[in-house]
Structures are given as C-alpha cells and as structure tokens.
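Progress narrative, work stream C.
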Amino acid sequence: RMQVEADAVDVDRDGRSEVVLLVGHGASTASYALFRYDGRILARVDRASGPLVLLAGGTVTHGDGFSCTTNGRLVLRQATSNQGKVFHVVSTVLRLAGARAVVVSRSGYDGRQDDPRVHRAYAVDCGSVGEGG
C-alpha cells in the first residue's frame, strides 16, 4: 500500500488552496509538485521551461528549499558549494498566474556554512508544508 504525502496551502493568497504533493524522494532530497484548482480543474503548475519542481533537502555541499511569502509569492532557494565551507545561494521568486509559475526576480549571494541564509536554503516553510506549518 502506497502512502501519499500531500498538503493544501493558499500559496498565492487568492482564497483557494493549492495542493503540494510529494512526487519523489531520494537519499537526501524530496521532490514536490504544485497543483492548482480553479473550481473545475486540478492542473499541475508549470514554468515556461516545463513542470515546476519544488525540492527540499540536501547534503553537506548542496541544499534546496522553498517558502511561501505573506504577499502570495513562492520562493525557491538553492545552495551549492564545492567544499562545504562557502556557499552560493540563489533565490528565485515566483508568482502564480493561473497554472503557470512566473519568475518575478532572481538573486544570489555567498555565505559561509554557518550563515542563517545558507541554512534557510535547506528549509521548507509554506503553510502546513515544512517547518512553518
């Protein structure tokens, strides 16, 4: 019997919850898909480049996470490091437009292993999904 992991959260603050569904889990990273219900159809949220994949977890040299903001945005974070001491963190802010995730902004910064911004790149905080729920 398969266990399904899913949560509902109003990512874009429009009064309707989106569904966050666990679609894969490796040794250190989980993969989630985001679905939007418009009152008639449940559709997977895509980016211009293909399906939107939300990643969570990582290793000593790589981490992924995501969060939902109070103003209806979804923030994807990715931290990478060659030696596990200094990390480059990229944050991509998305907004939902129907069943499409559109990039609002992208920024990056470098931080040491003990930098709270690096730790945040590994975290999930989106309503009932992750530590914020």
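Work stream C, second folded protein:
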Amino acid sequence: QIVTMTSTGDEPLLITSIAITGQNNGDFLEDDDCPRSPTSLLPGDHCKVRVIFSPTEIGLLTADVTITDNAPDSPQTVPLTGIGVGGKPALE
C-alpha cells in the first residue's frame, strides 16, 4: 500500500520521523521518499510512504504508520491491518 503525504499548510513541513509503531510493528515494513528535517516538504509538495505487509504470524495483525513533524496535530497516524494466512500475506 502507498500513502501519499501532501503539505497542505502555508509553511514548509519539517518531518522528524516516519516509523511503524503499535502492537504488530514487526509485521509491516516502511519505505518512503519523504525529506527529513532540516530539509522540508514545501507547501503543495508531496511524498510517498510505501508499506509492505510481511507477516510472521497467522491471524489479524495491526500497527500504525506514525509521522512526526512540525504540524500542529503531530504526530499523525495511519492505521494498518493485515491478516497473516498460512505464510501468505493479505493486506486489508
């Protein structure tokens, strides 16, 4: 799955970190092309966060993508849910 982050404010967005957090954080991998502070995402610009589900267990697995930045509502979270099925991942 790919999440597109867009800087919608009037000021540059300074991203401190992007991480997988939560109960089953080891079952999800994150890769992104987002700049980290002190480099910023300018207003109107975007970057992409790609999440790969790689389950180590069978059953319902949950985590979050947690994005920490200089926005007033930081950190932002994107919930992740996947179902590990017999060694084959199925992302919801």
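Residues 31 and 50 are 5 Å apart (CA to CA). No further action is required on this item.
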